[in-house]
């Protein structure tokens, strides 16, 4: 490196660093590592990884290992793999907290953890090690009226089946909202709280909750005379308010959608800083359709005809990936562009093992094709598996922690040696 580059003005180095960070956190870490002057001229992610949203690793997703090795399994010795949704790059991070925690959710690349012995909730930045502390989940038990049929195990399952959102106030206060889709409730807590607070209202049923830009979005299906889908926006309490709020915000109904527009919805998915809704366009379930949430809010029902080079993975949760060999590792296959990969449930059958086909839908042609060989419900599933199959496991909680994991045998097909580290 030349002396001129090494002696750039500190303010200019800092400005360039922020622009690099807008692309990806790993690029920012590499930028800071160029020389001691650039390291000293830029802000370290450490101790700011959670409280500063600029350092959230939004492009990174935790990748289950397969072979029944959920994140935190003793055989992994504390290491967890992550992949970049835009470049296809793979890294490993060592997460000692997984010795006695399980992963409940991933929000903007942050991991929501549940501590085994006392149900405390913690928000972890996997690459900087920064942690935000939240109250025990058990503090919600006196606030929820469970159905009489619930035993201790079903109560635990209901409380640990969550979709979370994270909002950071201007003062650095972190608010986490938890949507319990099985219980139709939402709760919140901020750093420093002693317990979780349950919102008094319920949305029943609470369908497909998703986190987007610090808020939660969910659907409600009304099947009586009106036959509509309602879409709600759930805002966190304003923790920057000078005075304590006298009441918690109510969910805001932002869209009403006639049911004939999409009879069977799959899920919301974030793509290119927009929230999309993926659904079947008719009772035959032969075609998929995509709407922008912003269009539905404005009353427009014009389907999205193309998502470019992106591929949507849709199931219990949803991901958008957009990498090809020339953007990441040359050894990784490219994703099928302008496609949706999901379990295509046809013909209608109550047994998913008999009716679900792991397929990809081409938005250009409207044609379905197999996404992998064999029935993925088979135990053990057929092998070898493609990268597509492994990414699809990111859409299922059962692959994330020991409480939900069944023994899944998968074929190893890559070795990742790079580890992601950040300097001081």
Automatic annotation (TrEMBL):
Domain KIB1-4 beta-propeller intervals: 82-343
Pfam families named in the record: Beta-prop_KIB1-4
PANTHER family registered for this protein in UniProt: EXPRESSED PROTEIN (PTHR33165:SF106), F-BOX DOMAIN CONTAINING PROTEIN-LIKE-RELATED (PTHR33165)
Name used for this protein in its record: KIB1-4 beta-propeller domain-containing protein
Species for this entry: Urochloa decumbens
């Amino acid at each position: 490196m030349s002396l001129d580059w090494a002696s750039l003005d500190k303010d200019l180095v800092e400005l360039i660093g922020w622009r690099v960070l807008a692309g990806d956190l790993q690029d920012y870490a590499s930028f800071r590592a160029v020389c001691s002057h650039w390291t000293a001229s830029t802000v370290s992610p450490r101790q700011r990884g959670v409280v500063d949203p600029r350092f959230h690793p939004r492009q990174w997703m935790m990748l289950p290992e397969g072979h029944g090795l959920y994140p935190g399994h003793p055989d992994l010795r504390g290491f967890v793999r992550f992949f970049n949704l835009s470049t296809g790059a793979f890294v490993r991070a060592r997460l000692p907290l997984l010795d006695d925690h399980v992963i409940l959710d991933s929000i903007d690349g942050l991991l929501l953890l549940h501590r085994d012995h006392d149900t405390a909730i913690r928000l972890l930045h996997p690459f900087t090690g920064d942690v935000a502390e939240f109250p025990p989940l058990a503090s919600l038990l006196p606030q929820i009226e469970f159905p009489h049929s619930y035993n201790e195990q079903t109560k635990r399952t209901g409380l640990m089946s969550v979709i979370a959102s994270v909002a950071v106030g201007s003062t650095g206060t972190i608010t986490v909202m938890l949507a319990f889709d099985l219980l139709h409730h939402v709760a919140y807590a901020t750093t420093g709280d002693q317990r979780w607070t349950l919102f008094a209202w319920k949305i029943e049923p609470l369908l497909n909750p998703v986190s987007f830009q610090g808020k939660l979005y969910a659907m409600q299906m009304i099947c009586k005379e009106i036959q509509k889908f309602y879409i709600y926006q759930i805002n966190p309490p304003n923790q920057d308010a000078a005075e304590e709020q006298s009441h918690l915000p109510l969910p805001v109904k932002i869209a009403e959608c006639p049911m004939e527009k999409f009879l069977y919805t799959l899920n919301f998915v974030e793509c290119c800083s927009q929230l999309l809704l993926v659904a079947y366009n008719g009772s035959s379930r032969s075609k998929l359709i995509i709407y922008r949430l912003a269009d539905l809010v404005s009353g427009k029902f014009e389907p999205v005809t193309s998502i470019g080079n992106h591929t949507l993975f849709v199931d219990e949760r949803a991901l958008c990936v957009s990498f090809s060999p020339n953007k990441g590792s040359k050894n990784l296959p490219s994703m099928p562009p302008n496609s949706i990969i999901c379990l295509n449930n046809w013909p209608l059958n109550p047994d998913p093992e008999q009716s679900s086909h792991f397929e990809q839908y081409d938005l250009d042609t409207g044609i379905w094709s197999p996404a992998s060989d064999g029935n993925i419900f088979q135990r053990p599933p057929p092998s070898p598996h493609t990268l597509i199959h492994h990414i699809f496991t990111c859409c299922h909680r059962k692959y994330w922690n020991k409480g939900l994991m069944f023994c899944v045998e998968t074929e190893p097909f890559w070795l990742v040696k790079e580890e992601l580290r950040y300097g001081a």
